[in-house]
Structure formats: structure tokens, C-alpha cells
Automatic annotation (TrEMBL):
Keywords linked to the UniProt accession: Decarboxylase, Lyase, Pyridoxal phosphate
Keyword flag Lyase: yes
Domain of life of the organism encoding this protein: Eukaryota
UniProt similarity note: Belongs to the group II decarboxylase family.
Names of the cofactor(s): pyridoxal 5'-phosphate
Keyword hit for Transferase: no
InterPro entries, per database record: Aromatic_deC, PyrdxlP-dep_de-COase, PyrdxlP-dep_Trfase, PyrdxlP-dep_Trfase_major, PyrdxlP-dep_Trfase_small, Pyridoxal-P_BS
Name of this protein: Tyrosine/DOPA decarboxylase 2
One Pfam family linked to the record: Pyridoxal_deC
GO MF annotation: an example: pyridoxal phosphate binding
Disordered, as annotated region: 1-34
PROSITE patterns per the UniProt record, alphabetical: DDC_GAD_HDC_YDC (PS00392)
Compositional bias of kind Polar residues: 1-15
Length: 567
């Protein structure tokens, strides 16, 4: 049996040994994995997380901290020896130093970007995978982990009403990666190698062209660049408000034909189901028809809105997916599978394996396992996490119906929020709310105001809203319009949070529209509210949760904050 060389650790460290370290100390204490100690420490961590969730709504969503605030409070070097009960002491620092500086992504008032949903079983699934800590890069490296991933990607694909061609049961297959960007990179590389083999080899690299719209997530351009596609060969097709910012099949077809006529090689289309700015849905069937016969790999990035396909009433958004080559979505965004989890399905797995597979690794192969899935050949890296466990737990413990209910609740809240915005004549909803996302903007009283001024007004409104700490939203620029994005989708969000968020927007609109407020930097205008709110909210969290109540650090921090902000 392999043994861990404790002696090396003690010999290298010349610091003095702590007299009574309760935390396992390599070389002088128990083994670093110890069931009894794990149970004791695990309870501390679970209690900590549970307390955090109990009080999360009381934190300002976005922290009022300046760059460098944390580094200044931490020592420059790691400790030579653990302090007594180091984990408990570190958890106190998480509570007192780190939590005041995080953006609370699980806050029910977090409406920015797209949510990263968490759930009890999602978090515990992560804990289970971390505890088992296996590395299923091949089937042989962990047969059950590989097989669970094949089973769970088929389960999810069926739950999302994806066509069978993309699932193992229909000749395709799925895998679990970390992010959508990885899914794009892997599929572009697969498409690239397949195409180069067809058109005459690597010397044609410079002729390969990829297509997307001006609403496609920026990670697509990054993935294409990493895959070696010339930056000049990324066609970004403009969209417009009239067509809901969706990619036009006719414009795509014209671009593909123009490239072919110029001797270039159309390679890859990234269509989006649920764009980041406005959750627009590109028409998959028509886009596939537009490139049919040109040998273009069609990938669907459904990072956010793919989750909505779980509801039969939304499954039409993936209509036409029978003809696509690959489809990806992030269950960590809207399906309760804690970060990170991106499901990618491909119609022809051999294309992925041909590009990303490695066969000079006999050491990893198991003679008995030649006809199995080796997931290392479906991704960039060798090592990988056991993500299937978490997704499987989520699907088992919530069930497809439970997840439908979760998605529908957010959609209902978005409908309610949109109605509130539309009922206030000072605001405009430039595109209808889609899924859980509502885009809106404040209009100046004077119709003739230039777009740039309207945009600046909305930029100030967003900053003012976010400075309150009572709601946190993000923005997008579409068709030249700066819009606020209220993305409803967090696990703890209820209708009352959405109503309060709207009240915050209205209050801040009053403020930015008043002559006194107009032209004044939002930081200066809403300073009083911000600091008072931040102090009130932090104090209440401290009082309810912290024990001992407030450390000297918090008192000093609170006064320093007030001093810095001039209150
Ligand atoms: N695609 C879309 C539509 C997104 O909204 C996002 C992020 O929000 C991404 C891709 C990038 O996702 P990831 O961080 O998983 O790469």
C-alpha cells in the first residue's frame, strides 16, 4: 500500500511546533483524512453555510468595499503551523472578513447577469463529489462515474425535450463540462478538424470562417480564437430591434455564400437560445436550413434558457434541434446544480473524439474497456470532476416536475415585474420579457432627448439602484440602447423581493430625474442612503448571527467606511 511521507513535511518546515494544535498537522498529528475529525469539522462547515443562508437576505447584495480591502487585512505569508482549531478560526475570518466583501450571488435580491442557482442537494452533491474525490478521465479510471454521466446526460436531455439524435440512446451523447465556453471550444475544434480533413489539410486554417450574431456571448469569439480561427474570419451578423435581436437566416445565408464565393470555408455557426443581453431565441430550424449543404457545424448555446426547455410550454424554443451538431446548457444557471455544470450534447461523438482524443496514453487504457466512453477524449483537459453525481442528485431529489415548478415561478415573477414597469409611464420595455429576464429603461421627460443622454440617465439609474444594496441588477446595450436587466432566477427569490426591487428602481428613478439629482454623480446623490443602508443591514446581520456580536474590526471598519464616504 502507498504511504504518505510525513517525515518530509516535518523535516522541511523549521518553524516551531504548536503545543496544542487541534487541527491535524502533517507529520505530527493524525492523517489528513480522518473520519472522526471530518465529521466534527464537517458539522462546523454545514452549520456555517446554513447560518449564512438563514441571514443572506439581510446583507447588502453588493459589498461596499474598495480594491485591496481584503489583502490589507490578511498576513503576507501562510502560517508555518496551524493555529489551535484552525478551521474554526478560519471560518470566523470567512464570516468577518470575507463575507462582507463578497457579492451575494444567492441573495434573493440578486438580479444581475443570470443567476447561478444553488440548492441543498446541489451543494451536498458537490460535497459528496469532493469527498469521494475521484478523477473519472476514462471509464476504467472510474466506471460508475463515467456511466452515471452517460445516464444523467440522457436523463437531462430527455427532460429538456432534446431530440434523440443528441442523446446516447439515439446515437449521440452528452458530457458534463464546467462552462459554456469550454463547450464552444471543444465543438469548434471538432468541427475544425473534420473540415480540414475534407478541404485539404492544415494549410486551409486561415480560410475557416465562423458565424454568430452581435448578441452572441463574447466567449464564442474567445473560443474561436483559441481554436486558431483568424479574428478577421469571425462574422458577427447584426441584429435589430424589429426582429427581437434574433439572428436572421437570410443574413446568415448571404454571409456564408459571400465567403464561399471568395474562396473561404464556412465552418461553424453559434446560434443562441436565450442571448445574454435580452434572452432572444435564434430560429434554429431556419438557421439550419440556411446553412444546409454548406457543411457548417451548427452549435446551440443555450447556457441560460436551455433550462426552460424542461417545461413543455417552452420546448418549442429548441424546435429544429434535430438538425444541429451540438447543444449546450448550464444547469448551474437555472436548474439548481451548483457551480459548475455545463451539459454538452453532440450528434456525432466520434467527431469530438477524433479531435480531442489521445492515443499515446496506453497507461490509462484498460484492455477490457475498448468500447466505452473515455470522457478525457471529449474535453480539453485530462483530469475532470465527478459532476454527474451532483446533477443526478438534483434530478432525483427535485424531479422533473419540481424543476418545472422552479422555472415557472421565476417566469411568473418576471411577468409581474414587466407589468409593474409597463404601468409606470416613465419607463419603457424595449423587448418583451423573456423567461425570467426583463429589460427596461427610463425615458427622459423630453421626447427629443438624444440617445446618449438617455443612456447616461439609465447608467446613473443602475448605479443608484445597486448602491442601495437592496437590489442588484446589470445592464446591456442593445441596438444602441442602454437597458437595465432584471434577471429573476435565484433559488431564494420570492415575489416580495421582486416587488421591493421595483420599489427601489422607482425611488431611484425619482432621484435621478429630479433637477437636483440630474447631473449629480449617483455616488454623491445616494451616499446617505447607501451608507445608512449598508450599516443597518450589516449591523442586523451581526446582531442576529455573529457571536461574539461585533468584533473590534467591524467597529473600526464601519467608522472607516463612514469616514471614507464623508458621513
Ligand atoms: N452563453 C450565454 C448565452 C451566456 O449567458 C453565458 C454567460 O452568462 C455564457 C455563454 C458563458 O457561460 P460560461 O461562463 O459557462 O462559459
Amino acid at each position: 500500500m502507498a504511504s504518505f511521507n510525513h517525515a518530509n513535511y516535518t523535516a522541511r518546515d523549521t518553524g516551531s511546533s504548536p503545543a496544542a494544535a487541534a487541527t491535524p498537522t502533517l507529520g505530527v498529528g493524525p492523517l489528513p483524512l480522518d473520519g472522526r475529525e471530518f465529521r466534527r469539522q464537517g458539522r462546523q462547515v454545514i452549520d456555517f453555510i446554513a447560518d449564512y443562508y438563514d441571514h443572506i437576505d439581510e446583507y447588502p447584495v453588493r459589498p461596499a468595499v474598495a480594491p485591496g480591502f481584503l489583502a490589507r487585512q490578511l498576513p503576507d505569508t501562510a502560517p508555518s503551523w496551524p493555529e489551535p482549531d484552525a478551521l474554526a478560526s478560519a471560518l470566523r475570518d470567512v464570516r468577518d472578513l470575507i463575507l462582507p466583501g463578497v457579492t451575494h450571488w444567492q441573495s434573493p435580491r440578486h438580479f444581475a447577469h443570470f443567476a447561478a442557482t444553488a440548492s441543498n442537494v446541489g451543494a451536498l452533491g458537490e460535497a459528496l463529489a469532493a469527498g469521494l474525490n475521484i478523477n473519472p478521465f476514462t471509464w476504467a479510471a472510474s466506471p460508475a462515474a463515467t456511466e452515471l454521466e452517460t445516464v444523467v446526460t440522457d436523463w437531462l436531455g430527455k427532460a429538456l425535450h432534446l431530440p434523440e439524435q443528441l442523446l446516447f440512446c439515439g446515437g449521440g451523447g452528452g458530457t458534463l463540462l464546467g462552462t459554456s465556453c469550454e463547450a464552444m471550444l471543444c465543438t469548434i475544434v471538432a468541427a475544425r478538424d473534420r473540415k480540414l480533413a475534407e478541404v485539404g489539410g492544415e494549410e486551409r486554417m486561415g480560410d475557416l470562417v465562423v458565424y454568430c450574431s452581435d448578441q452572441t456571448h463574447f466567449s464564442f469569439k474567445k473560443a474561436a480564437h483559441v481554436a486558431g480561427i483568424r479574428r478577421a474570419n469571425c462574422r458577427v451578423i447584426p441584429t435589430c430591434r424589429e426582429s427581437g435581436f434574433t439572428l436572421s437566416p437570410a443574413a446568415l445565408q448571404a454571409a456564408v455564400r459571400a465567403d464561399e464565393a471568395a474562396g473561404r470555408v464556412p465552418l461553424f455557426l453559434c446560434a443562441t437560445v436565450g442571448t445574454t443581453p435580452t434572452a432572444a431565441v435564434d430560429p434554429l430550424r431556419e438557421l439550419c436550413a440556411a446553412v444546409a449543404g454548406h457543411g457548417v457545424w451548427v452549435h446551440v448555446d443555450a447556457a441560460y434558457a436551455g433550462a426552460a426547455c424542461i417545461c413543455p410550454e417552452f420546448s418549442h424554443i429548441a424546435a429544429g434541434a434535430e438538425a444541429v451538431d451540438s447543444f449546450s446548457t448550464n444547469p448551474h444557471k437555472w436548474l439548481l446544480a451548483n457551480m459548475d455544470c455545463c451539459a454538452l450534447w453532440v450528434r456525432r461523438p466520434p467527431a469530438l473524439v477524433a479531435a480531442l482524443g489521445t492515443d499515446d496514453d496506453v497507461i490509462l487504457k484498460d484492455a477490457a474497456a475498448s468500447a466505452v466512453v473515455d470522457y478525457k477524449d471529449w474535453q480539453v483537459a485530462l483530469s475532470r470532476r465527478f459532476r454527474a453525481l451532483k446533477l443526478w442528485l438534483v434530478l432525483r431529489c427535485h424531479g422533473v416536475e419540481g424543476l418545472r415548478g422552479f422555472v415557472r415561478a421565476h417566469v411568473r415573477m418576471a411577468v409581474a415585474f414587466e407589468a409593474m414597469v409597463r404601468a409606470d409611464p416613465r419607463f419603457e420595455v424595449p423587448v418583451p420579457a423573456r423567461f425570467g429576464l426583463v429589460c427596461f429603461r427610463l425615458l427622459p421627460a423630453d421626447d427629443g432627448t438624444a440617445e446618449a443622454t438617455t443612456n447616461e440617465l439609465n447608467r446613473r439609474l443602475l448605479e443608484a439602484v445597486n448602491e442601495t444594496g437592496r437590489a442588484y441588477m446589470s445592464c446591456a446595450v442593445v441596438g444602441g440602447m442602454y437597458v437595465l436587466r432584471c434577471a429573476i432566477g435565484n433559488s431564494l427569490t420570492e415575489e416580495r423581493h421582486v416587488r421591493e426591487a421595483w420599489s427601489v428602481v422607482q425611488e431611484q428613478a425619482d432621484s435621478v430625474l429630479t433637477p437636483a439629482g440630474a447631473g449629480v454623480a449617483p455616488a454623491a446623490r445616494s451616499k446617505g442612503r447607501t451608507i445608512e443602508d449598508a450599516r443597518r443591514m450589516e449591523t442586523s446581520v451581526h446582531e442576529k448571527w455573529r457571536s461574539p456580536p461585533r468584533t473590534a474590526y467591524h467597529v473600526i471598519r464601519s467608522y472607516a467606511l463612514a469616514f471614507l464616504l464623508g458621513k
